[in-house]
Every structure is written in C-alpha cells, then in structure tokens.
C-alpha cells in the first residue's frame, strides 16, 4: 500500500486524538514504523492492521473509520500533498472523477510497485456517473465512499454516494452511483 | 521534401493531438496556432510574427527557414516573453509552402506554472508525458517533505534519547546516593524480600542492635527484634500492612542483641516490582531514646523559662529553680554559688537536696565554704566561664569536697555558669548518687539555662535600677520649680506635678478627670488671651513633634514661661510634656531692661558725643549716630570694624582708670581728629567690653590755642606794664625822695629860724609826699611781683623782736583811731626762717589795715603754731572788731587796686594794693592768707607761714 495512505491515517489520528493514541494504535497493530514514506509501498496487511487497531483503540467501526479516512485523505492529505495538481485534475467533481481512471493509470505506470486501484466511470451525465472501483485489496469500499464525499466537500458540491455493486463472487469490483447537484 | 501530411489533418484533429502546435511561414509569421496555445497566448493571432510572443531559446540559431531545416534533429525550445514559460517540441518543415510546424507542449517544471497558465490535466493530450512529469515532480516534492519529516523526527528522537539518557544517569546517581545514604544514615535501615526476610541492613542498624548483616540475613525481623514488651497489636498491624502492600509507621519497642529494650519509630515502605507485585519492604528505624530524653530536657527547659518569666526577682526563684531541675532530672542535690562583694570567692547562697542528704556532711560544709577562681567545681566554672562535668568525682583532681561527698554517697556532678552579656552572676552545680557520663546535650541545655538565668538576673538588676531611676525622676518631677503636665495625643492630662497645680491655682475638685470641662473653663478665665493659648495647643496638636516656647499672661499680672516638647519613645509620639515656669519677676525686669535699653538708645543716638562699644577682639559692636558722624562713615558701617582703624593707638582696659584723655582719631577720609576720650568697661555674657565715649575737640583745640596765644600776649603785656610801672615808680621815687628830704630840711630850717608860718604848708607837702611815696612803693612792689622780679631772701630771725617792731610802728596809727592793740602772748618761737622784710611788710599791712578801718575798737594779734603733715606752721592772725567786710567784697579784696569801699580808701587812705601785695608775698614765702569776716562782726586776717626752713619751700621762694 501506498505509504501516503498510512501516513494520512497517522495524521488523521494524531490530529483528532494526539500522538499518544497513534502510538497505542501502532503498538496494538504491531506496526513499528516511525515515518511512512509517501511514495513507498508498504505491505497491505500493515494498513489493515493499523485500521483494525485504530478501530479498537478508538472504539469505532472500521467501515466508519475508513469512510472518515477517505474524507480526510481528500481534504487534508491530497490537498496538502498534491496542491495545484488537485486543481489541475479537474475544475469540478465530475471532471475529477472522470479523470480518476487516467490518473491511476499514470500512477501505476510511474510507480509500478504500488499496485494502485483502477477506476472506471460509466453512464456519465451532467450530474451523475457510476464509479467502478477495482482493487486487489478487499474491504476498502468505505474508504472510496469517503473519498468521493470528501471530493464533494472539496469542490463545494453536494454529493450522494451509493454503492450499487459489491465486490463478490459475482462481481469483481465495487460500483458506486455518484450523484451531485 | 514533400509537404508534411500533418498540415492536411483537419484542424480539430490536429488540435486534439497537438493542442499547443504552432505553424509559421518562412518569415516566421503565425499561420496556425493550437487551441490550447491560443488560449494561453490570446494576444498572438494568425499573421503575427512569432517574435511578438516568443524568442527562440534553443538551438541557438537565427530565425531562418534554411537554418531550421538543417536542425530538424534538434529539440527546440521557445520562451514566452511575458509569462516566461517555455514551449518544447519538435520542428517539422513543409518544403512546398515553406511552412514550419512546431509540435510542442508547455514545459511544466513546477505545478505553479500550470496553475499560473490556468491549465488542467485535460489540456494535455493523453500521449503527452508532461502530466506524468508533473506527477513525478509532485512525488519528488512529497518525498523531500517526507525526508524532512523523517529528519525532524530523528532529531527529536535523538534529543529525547539524550534527555532520557541524562535522566537515566541522574537516576543512577540518585540511586547511588540513596544507597550511600541508606548505608551511612544514622537511622537503622532494613531491606526485606517478598517473604519478609532480611536482605540487607545498614551499619546504623548494627550499631543500634548489635546484629551484623550476616547474623540477620534471611531472618524475619520480628523473630529477633521483638520481645516481651513489644506490643502484639502493633505487630498485627505491621503484618496486615505488609500483606496489603501499604506503607505505615508506628512506635514500637525492640530489643538489642544484648536484650536491652529501646523505643523506636518504625517506618515501613513496601517495594514493588515492575509489575506492581510485592517485592519486599524497606524499614527505617528511628531510635526514640534520644528524642524522648530531649523531650524531657525540653520540658525542664520550658519549666525553667516559665519560672523565670513568672518571677520578677530572679535571685528569689533560684531555690525553686534548683528544686525543679533536681527533681525532674533525678539529681540528689543542687547548689547556687555567687561571688562575694569583693569578688574574691564564691559562696553558697541556695541549696536544694533530696531529703536523704539534706543534712549530710557534704551539704553542711558546702554551705559555709568559699571557692576562689579556679578552685573546685564552682571555682573552675567561674574561672573558665563554661560548664564543667565531673563524671566520677573520685577521679577528679580539682574537687576539694571529695571526702565529704564520698561520705554522703555523692558520686558525680556538673556545674554551669550564670552569665549575661559577659557578666558572671554565679554558678549552679548538681550532684548525683550515680556515676554519670558527660552528656553534651545536657550541658548545652544547662548552658542555655545559665544564660537565661543570667539574663533574668540582669533584668532584675536593670528593673531595680529602673525603679530607682523612676523614683528619682518622680522626685525631680515633684521637686522641680517648674509646673509640669503631660498630655496624650487626645490632649488628655496623663500626669502633672504639684507645682503645676500651685502655679495654675487649680481647685482640687477640677483635677477629677470628669471635671475636665470645668478645668478648661477655669484655665480660660485666668488668661488674658485664652484664644491664643488654645490656638497654640491646636497648632502643636497638628504637628506633634514640634518644640515650642512661649509665655502665658494671666489676668492677675503673672507671666508663665511655657515650654513644650513631644513625648517620644523610639519613633513613636505618645503625647506632649508641658513645662510652666513663673517668670513674672523676670518679665518685669526684662520690661524694665527693655525700657532702659530704649532710653539708652535714645540717649546714645541723640548724644553729641560719639559712643563705641568694643568687643574683646577690638571690633566695634555698637556705634551711635555721633560716632558715625565724627568718623564720617555711613551709619551702621562701623559695626565690625577694628577699633585701630578709627583710633590707631588703640584703647585698652588700662585706659578705664583715666577720667578722660586725648587721642587722635582717624576719619574715613584719613584725616586725624583730636578726640577727648573716656572709657568704661563692662562684662556682658562673659565677654569684656569697652565703651568708648569721645568728643571731637578740634574746635576746642583751636580756641584753646587762640586763648593760650592771647594769654601769653596778655602776660607779656602785663609784664611790660609791670616793668614799666617798676621803672616808672623808681623814676618817680627818686625825685619824690628829694622833694621829701628837702621839705624836711626846709621845715627844720623854718623851725630853727622861726618861720612857723611855713610849717603847715611844709607839713602838707611832707604828708602828701609821704603818701605818694607809699603809693609808689606799693606799686613798685606789686610791679616787681607781677614782673617776676620780687626776690624772697629768707634768713634765721628772732620773730618776736620783729613783731614788737611792727606793733611799735603801728601804735600811732591805732591811737589815731582810738583803737587798742592787744597782743596775745605765745611761747617764743625762737629761730624763725623767713624773709624779715617781706614778713614785716605783710604783718604790718594787716595791722595797719585793721587800725585804719577800725574806729574806737580793738586790734588783736595772735599766733598759733600747728603741725601739718609733719611740718610746723604758724598762723599769724590779726583780728579787729570793726565793721566787717561783706561776702561780696571778700571776693575782690585781694585783687590789685581794689578796696572794699572806695569811700573808705578815701577816708582811710591807702593805695588798695596792700592786701594784693600781702597775698602775693605770702604765696612767695610758701604760705597763704585767709580772711574770715562778716558785716558788723569785724574781720580776722590770718597769714599761715612755715616756721622752719623747708628746702622745697626755699626752692619755690623766687
């Protein structure tokens, strides 16, 4: 997993609960990394362990945590890390979401070891689209939902995200119906 | 080269593939521009020269179609002129129409450029790797940021590590010190393991209990420290607390290895392992023996302090003090010794003892003994002025009472001095039946007690002196002639003496504090100006520290001097002391003095004579207006001047004996003035002062000089006149003698020849001639005298003979006026030293005058000798009982050419020079002539002459 994700998780916990709680979470997760390198790949288990431990320490469901984490990722981590690049990706939510597949394609080409997810947009209209999320990492759909909601906040656009397709035996990815106004 | 097929692409397709393309003609004018480039470069239109917006940065070639054609394999870079961004790409040429096709995209080295140009990722064709470069750039930025964070984290961790290391070192040091403290502390310490078995004890534990570490290691403390007196309940509490792992403390009795019980304060702290489990305990013991003893000492000390504080006279409580210490400390006897008056030895003043040895030999003898400094316990404490312990009297070399002490069972003792501020008031000694080892704590305590007693005794002495002083002050207060009243800050009377009451004549009932209003009214009524009296009090009330002096006038004429000053103790004002003194007489004297002084000033200032007052330094203290005027100085400027500047010869006290004298003064202009000066001296305020009164006698001197000159001229004229008269008389007398001689011869011849008819005329000539001769002789004598030519020629004569001749000569004259001459006899004088001619002339003048101016009377002559100042004088007195001479006439009787009555001279004859000549003759002979007479009572002329030769008289007889 992208080190930036773990780092974002750390920032979110530290901002909200302080460094001691993060240390507890790390202790609980067994993750002994002091500093996550943003563009470095880390084992996915590490992220899962951190999320699981945070859920325990903070006494919050992992799904809620991930969703909150998605919002934090967009509003704090990405804005801080990418700066103008975020603006360059799209002038509005739709443009951003539509560019998202290419963006991840470019990431996968530039950092082939990161194994980033894939996105696909379908049924794109002026105020909705279907976002298809393909990932080898299970359980991160709430994170994507949080991401999209965060993007809505970023673009000051009211957005509704509904997962319409769930990864499972019959479907190899998750589908989110995104509506905005 | 054929034209590039690209130019045949439809414009939208070309824009999609190359949204930043630029097509130029051979003159480098814009032919076509990609849609994205047109958006970011809106001012560049078709037909514009390329250079309007761009410069060719690379390669460095000119804008020349051919040159471009030769560099087609080069990467081209154009720089935009205003936004300074670059276009990078490849050049293609169309030879047919000589077009230049620049397929490029903006070179984005920084996301800011993208943002500045307003471009998004969608503005780049998908094949354009610029977006990827951007992402890589962004990733690089993030990486750098991560590295910075990592560095910061590492730095912080290193600092924390250093701090942690230091803390660790500190803790190690702390542990080391704690171990050291535990090992070396005077409090016994036990460390036990989780099973309460001893692991370690310190040296203090061994010292107290006698158990070594080896002896107790592995044993449970209670198993060897507790004994019969150890409280089982306390032991239970200890066990429970250990089990619960809670710290506790208690007092408990333990036993030493030797079996001696001792009280201790036990403090137990459980020790926890890392997991919070029981790892044993640490027990700290505090031996309470010393504390309990100290408590006893403190109780004794407190009791003594209280006793001393409660008892005014320290010496009276000494006996009680001996008993208190003796009983509480368990001694058998205590004695107080103090120096004799001559301070040669200490004698016993008080004794306390347990009943068993009250009458012992030791105390009986001690009561009557005396110790010189350095001798025995009392003497050595006195000599060294410090405490002395004798633990075993039998081993002491300087304990003279050893024998009787041993007989009484006394074994040990100690003494301490009673001192205060270095003064030795005495010493106290205590004795014990047991041998007692020296106890420095106890000795320290008794040293303190000694100081306390000393201070108390010193206080007692000071108190006695203070009482004496107060008594003295009260006596002075009552005996002083001043009325004194003390008031507080509220102006209430605190105290007053009897003299005050007497001075103010206050009725006794007004002295009652309840009668203060009546008293005030009474005071007001007595005063001439009560308001100013009250105002003054209020002024002083407003300024309590002020000192004041004024006078208070009573209606009855009395005057009181009022002095007041604040009653201050330290810095605090308590009130005011008023002192009243009757100065009525003094005030009257001062008034009289002021009047006298005013009068003196008026007199001095209006006096025409100058007045100066001179101090001991000869400087002018006072000068009146006349002094300033005489010395021509402005008024007031003479004050302080040296007297020598005014009177150069100076004036000293010796001048005071002179009535007056003349000196030269010097005025401001430097002119000398003759001054007539008189000087008086006085002592004022212990200083001798001279008062110089002087008068400018310049004018008088001038007049005197003129008078002297006139006098001398007159005297010269007189002398000339006398000389003239003498000469003239002489010249007259010679022919007159011839006239008389020849007249007598003619008369004789006429008688002889019988020519009697001529006799009467001849007699008239003779009479007139003789009168004239007599007159001329007188004038001649007077002239001689006044011309200074009369010479007295004394010689030894027989005066009686001479007197007889005079009487015989004057008899006819007496007979003529029917007068009787009576000579009163006297003892013959014998030799008599005088000028016989002038004596005869003088006596004859008096006799003949008496006979001439007395009718039918009596003329008496008497002589009276008299010794005056050892010299013999003779008074020749001619007395008549004629008509006498008036007082007025007596004044001019002796003046030349004067007769008392001109008619008399006419009647009686004479020149009027007789008495004037007689007086001058008497003066010339060293005598005098006096007259006593009254009208109708006759006259008495007395010539007083010395009888014998007197050298001084001789010398003056010129």
Please tell me about this protein's structure.
The complex is a heterodimer of chains A (181) and B (958). Chain A has 2 domains: 3-60, no CATH class; 65-180, H-NOX domain (Alpha-Beta Complex). Chain A contains 7 helices and 4 strands, in the order ααααααββαββ. Chain A has helices at residues 3-17, 19-29, 44-58, 62-82, 84-89, 93-110, 141-154, and strands at residues 118-122, 128-134, 159-165, 174-180. In chain A, strands 1-2-4-3 form a 4-stranded antiparallel beta sheet, with helices on one face. In chain A, helix 2 crosses helix 3 (44-58) and helix 4 packs across helix 7. With 958 residues, chain B is an alpha+beta fold. Chain B folds into 6 domains: 5-128, Beta-Lactamase; 185-287, PAS domain (Beta-Lactamase), CATH 3.30.450; 292-466, Beta-Lactamase (2-Layer Sandwich); 480-587, PAS domain (Beta-Lactamase); 607-696, PAS domain (Beta-Lactamase, 2-Layer Sandwich), CATH 3.30.450.20; 791-956, Histidine kinase-like ATPase, C-terminal domain (Heat Shock Protein 90). Chain B contains 28 helices and 34 strands. In chain B, helix 21 runs antiparallel to helix 22 (759-786), helix 23 (799-816) runs parallel beside helix 24 and helix 24 (836-852) packs antiparallel against helix 27. The termini of chain B are far apart. Residues 952-958 of chain B have low confidence and may be disordered. The interface between A and B is medium-sized, with 28 and 24 residues.
């Amino acid at each position: 997993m992208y080190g930036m994700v773990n780092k974002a998780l750390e920032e979110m916990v530290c901002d909200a609960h302080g460094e001691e709680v993060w240390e507890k979470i790390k202790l609980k997760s067994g993750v002994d990394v002091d500093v996550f390198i943003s563009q470095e790949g880390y084992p996915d288990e590490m992220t899962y362990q951190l999320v699981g431990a945070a859920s325990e320490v903070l006494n919050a469901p992992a799904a809620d945590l991930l969703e909150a984490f998605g919002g934090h990722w967009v509003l704090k981590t990405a804005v801080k890390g990418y700066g103008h690049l975020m603006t360059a990706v799209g002038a509005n939510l739709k443009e951003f979401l539509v560019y998202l597949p290419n963006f991840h394609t470019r990431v996968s080409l530039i950092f082939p070891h990161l194994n980033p997810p894939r996105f696909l947009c379908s049924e794109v209209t002026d105020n909705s689209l279907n976002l298809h999320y393909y990932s080898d990492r299970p359980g991160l759909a709430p994170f994507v939902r949080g991401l999209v909601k965060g993007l809505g906040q970023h673009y000051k656009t009211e957005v509704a995200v509904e997962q319409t397709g769930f990864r499972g035996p019959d479907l190899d990815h998750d589908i989110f119906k995104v509506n905005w106004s | 080269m054929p034209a590039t097929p690209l130019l045949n692409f439809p414009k939208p397709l070309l824009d999609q593939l190359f949204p930043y393309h630029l097509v130029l003609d051979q003159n480098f004018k814009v032919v076509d521009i990609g849609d994205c480039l047109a958006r970011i470069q809106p001012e560049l239109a078709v037909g514009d020269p390329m250079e309007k917006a761009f410069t060719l940065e690379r390669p460095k070639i000119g804008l020349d179609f051919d040159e471009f054609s030769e560099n087609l394999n080069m990467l081209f870079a154009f720089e935009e002129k205003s936004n300074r961004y670059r276009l990078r790409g490849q050049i293609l040429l169309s030879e047919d129409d000589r077009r230049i096709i620049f397929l490029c995209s903006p070179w984005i080295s920084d996301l800011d450029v993208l943002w500045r140009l307003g471009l998004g990722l969608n503005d780049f064709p998908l094949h354009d790797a610029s977006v990827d470069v951007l992402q890589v750039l962004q990733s690089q930025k993030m990486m750098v940021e991560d590295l910075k964070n990592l560095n910061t984290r590492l730095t912080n961790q290193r600092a924390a590590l250093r701090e942690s290391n230091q803390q660790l070192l500190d803790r190690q040091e702390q542990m080391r010190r704690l171990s050291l403290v535990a090992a070396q502390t005077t409090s016994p310490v036990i460390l036990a393991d989780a099973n309460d078995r001893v692991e370690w004890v310190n040296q203090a534990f061994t010292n107290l209990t006698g158990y070594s570490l080896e002896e107790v290691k592995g044993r449970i403390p209670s198993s060897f420290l507790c004994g019969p007196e150890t409280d089982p309940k306390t032991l239970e509490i200890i066990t429970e607390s250990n089990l619960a792992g809670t710290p506790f403390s208690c007092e408990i009795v333990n036993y030493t290895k030797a079996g001696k019980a001792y009280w201790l304060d036990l403090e137990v702290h459980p020790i926890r392992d890392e997991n919070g489990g029981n790892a044993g305990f640490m027990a700290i013991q505090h031996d309470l023996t010393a504390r309990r003893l100290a408590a006893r000492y403190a109780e004794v000390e407190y009791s003594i302090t209280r006793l001393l504080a409660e008892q005014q006279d320290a010496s009276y409580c000494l006996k009680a003090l001996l008993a208190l210490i003796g009983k509480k400390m368990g001694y058998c006897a205590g004695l107080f010794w103090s120096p004799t008056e001559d301070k040669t030895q200490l004698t016993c003043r008080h004794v306390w003892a347990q009943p068993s040895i009250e009458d012992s030999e030791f105390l009986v003898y001690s009561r009557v003994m005396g110790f010189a400094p350095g001798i025995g316990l009392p003497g050595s404490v006195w000599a060294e002025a410090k405490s002395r312990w004798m633990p075993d009297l039998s081993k002491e070399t300087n304990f003279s009472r050893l024998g009787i002490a041993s007989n009484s069972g006394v074994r040990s003792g100690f003494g301490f001095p009673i001192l205060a501020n270095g003064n030795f008031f005495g010493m106290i000694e205590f004795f014990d039946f047991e041998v007692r080892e020296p106890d420095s704590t106890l000795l320290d305590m008794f040293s303190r007690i000694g100081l306390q007693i000393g201070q108390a005794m010193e206080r007692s002495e000071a108190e006695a002196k203070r009482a004496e002083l107060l008594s003295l002050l009260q006596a002075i207060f009552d005996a002083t002639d001043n009325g004194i009243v003390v008031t507080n800050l509220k102006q209430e009377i605190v105290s007053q003496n009897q003299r005050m009451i007497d001075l103010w004549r206050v009725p006794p009932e007004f002295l009652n504090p309840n009668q203060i209003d009546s008293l005030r009214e009474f005071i007001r009524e007595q005063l001439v100006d009560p308001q100013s009296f009250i105002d003054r009090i209020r002024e002083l009330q407003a300024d309590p520290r002020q000192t004041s002096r004024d006078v208070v006038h009573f209606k009855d004429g009395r005057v009181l001097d009022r002095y007041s000053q604040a009653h201050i103790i330290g810095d605090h004002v308590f009130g005011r002391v008023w002192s009243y003194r009757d100065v009525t007489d003094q005030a009257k004297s001062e008034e009289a003095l002021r009047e006298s002084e005013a009068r003196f000033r008026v007199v001095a200032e209006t006096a025409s004579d100058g007045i100066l007052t001179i101090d001991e330094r000869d400087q002018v203290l006072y000068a009146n207006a006349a002094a300033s005027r005489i010395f021509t100085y402005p008024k007031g400027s003479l004050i302080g001047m040296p007297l020598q500047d005014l009177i150069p010869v100076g004036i000293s006290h010796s001048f005071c004996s002179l009535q007056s004298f003349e000196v030269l003064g010097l005025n401001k202009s430097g002119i000398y003035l003759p001054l007539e000066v008189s000087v008086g001296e006085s002592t004022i305020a212990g200083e001798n002062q001279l008062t110089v009164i002087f008068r400018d006698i310049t004018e008088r001197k001038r007049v005197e000089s003129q008078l002297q000159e006139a006098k001398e001229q007159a005297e010269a004229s007189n002398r000339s006149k006398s000389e003239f008269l003498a000469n003239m008389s002489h010249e007259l007398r010679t022919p007159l003698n011839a006239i008389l001689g020849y007249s007598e011869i003619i008369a004789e011849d006429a008688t002889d020849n019988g020519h009697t008819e001529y006799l009467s005329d001849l007699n008239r000539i003779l009479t007139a001639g003789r009168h004239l001769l007599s007159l001329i002789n007188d004038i001649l004598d007077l002239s001689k005298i006044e011309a200074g030519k009369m010479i007295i020629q004394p010689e030894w004569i027989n005066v009686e003979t001479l007197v007889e001749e005079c009487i015989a000569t004057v008899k006819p004259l007496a007979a003529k006026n029917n007068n009787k001459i009576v000579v009163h006899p006297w003892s013959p004088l014998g030799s008599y030293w005088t000028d016989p001619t002038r004596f005869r002339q003088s006596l004859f003048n008096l006799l003949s005058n008496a006979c001439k101016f007395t009718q039918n009377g009596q003329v008496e002559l008497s002589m009276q000798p008299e010794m005056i100042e050892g010299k013999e004088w003779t008074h020749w007195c001619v007395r008549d009982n004629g008509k006498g001479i008036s007082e007025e006439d007596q004044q001019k009787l002796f003046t030349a050419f004067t007769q008392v009555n001109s008619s008399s001279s006419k009647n009686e004859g004479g020149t009027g020079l007789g008495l004037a000549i007689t007086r001058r003759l008497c003066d010339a002979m060293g005598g005098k002539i006096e007259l006593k007479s009254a009208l109708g009572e006759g006259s008495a002329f007395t010539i007083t002459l010395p009888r014998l030769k007197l050298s001084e008289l001789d010398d003056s007889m010129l």
